[in-house]
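Exam review. A common question shows you a sequence with its structure tokens and asks you to describe the fold in words. Practice with the pair below. Do the first one on your own.
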Amino acid sequence: MTRLKLAFMGTPDFAVSSLRALADAGHEIAAVYSQPPRPAGRGHKERLSPVHAYAAAQGWQVRTPKSLKSEQEQADFAALKLDVAVVAAYGLILPRAILEAPRLGCLNVHASLLPRWRGAAPIQRAIPAGDRESGVTIMQMDEGLDTGGMLCSERLPITDQTTASDLHDRLAELGGKLIVGALRGVAAGELEATPQPDQGVTYAAKLEKSESQIDWHRPAVELARQVRAFTPWPGAVFPLGKDRIKLLEVEAVETSGPAGLVLDDALTVACGEGALRLLRLQRPGKGAMAAKDFLNGFALPAGTDLLQGKSP
């Protein structure tokens, strides 16, 4: 294997698997770039990103610029004299000067089967859309939004039980495996990028807090996907009195009734089409609990109208 001098550019947990895999493969980590520390928690104490924390523990140089647009940042990057840069969910736009500085360019670990789900939230958007598969694409980066040529990809199934957390973890591990193989092929001159097809392009917009609201008029199957895709964030919630109840696990079932009506004592709620059985829920300030335990301290008898947020 050719040992490459590289910079790694990433921020969340998803990227840590790729960074670890590159180090385990014996590549030289010349520098790690990550988003600056952000205030977090009740005390608003600055917290390192997962990539930053992992890299610092290994003793690697970590850089956290707010932007890469300045001439000084670009000069500092070029001074590393890299063979390649690997990018995974970094969160900053790479200007042309950055893209062209490494000898082999910049490779991106993207959590979708491009050109489907370009953009910020490919894992979460695939599930509500009803996709039956996802995957990782290793891409040669250009100045567009996930528009570069594809070096390799691998698929993973999405089932009716797949959550965003499950898919995230599987794709993260797959990304680490694929980027090591892609670097081997690129360094040996055996792997060339293939342009993305013009057909099938979709965009995975950034998740918004406003998307957490459950709309009981929608089909139960769609709401079940929403719960699986938006847990833990932005969540899937519905109002009940002064509380906002979070749904953590649900099941679509074939029964019907007026949308939002609790149909039985097992917490089956009618939807626009079909019904949703609520399996695990969480009240504000409380831990997650199974439906039967939830009902011990919070009555939701049959006939409760969740659209009105009150019992009969």
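Now try the second one, then compare your answer with the model answer below.
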Amino acid sequence: MELREIETFLAIVEQGTFSKAAEKLGYSQSAVTVQIKQLEHELGARLFDRVPRGAVLTEQGRAFAFHANEIAGAARAAKASVASSQAAPQDIVGVLRLGSVESVATAILPEILVHFHSTCPHIQVIVTTAQRGLMIEGLRNNTIDLLLTMEGHVHQSGLVTRALRREQVVFVASPALLESVDEGAPAGRPLDAASLCELPFVLTEQGESYRLELDRALSELDLHIDPLIEAGNTETLVHLAERGVGATFVPRFSAQRELERGSLIEVATQLAPVEMETQLIHHKGKWIAPHMRIFIETLEALVK
């Protein structure tokens, strides 16, 4: 098994087709095909299904993808270690591939990256935000090094989870919105679930993290919310709520600034409080490179 074959395999995974991988690598398409056939012969397994839209990993291909990325990463690390043996943090070079949910990426990650960059200025950081399932798949395929998420505690085979801190998820709305729908009610009166559901709402997508917990809690009461707007970006939801479009349900840290200046206020309800955990997740087989370890230490120091 040659490193060149592994790099070709990874290029196809990234590009989605043999022809695009060949173009990226500067090979002919026939050369790419020969390399993959040789790799499949050595592994004794078919790695790709050829379909009209491109190349799709088989089950064996997905299993091999994690180790292929690890081999390629180890090769890059070996080259870097020779070039900068026992390098100080400020001299380490490399790439850190982070996955993150939108709320954490928007509200928490920038400060962490500022501190990390001051320690490791030559590390390129690539941040990917996507649905949770896709990012978990990225950990398993080794296309993501570390995943920073916020949800109920993750217990999945093959993954290592570090719980960092618990986060409150709260209902917030503009003062004007609450006044318009609750005229004459005592200030600060907790809304019952039915009254809450009568508010206009802007929410994250169904099936994701704290929205899922909210929908479950309401369904137990035979209630539901039909939001005016669904969006994956919590910053967008906070801005919409601030403008009076609707109430929203977001981690407190996402709306902390607006709560402090009074453009949003917390909506007290009779529903049970919802808490999530900010967590860092990586594959148990992942080699924790020096720059990854520094990032983890920075994260643990700032998120506590």
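Model answer, second protein: The first strand starts at residue 48 and ends at 51. The chain has a mean pLDDT of 88. Full marks require stating both points clearly.
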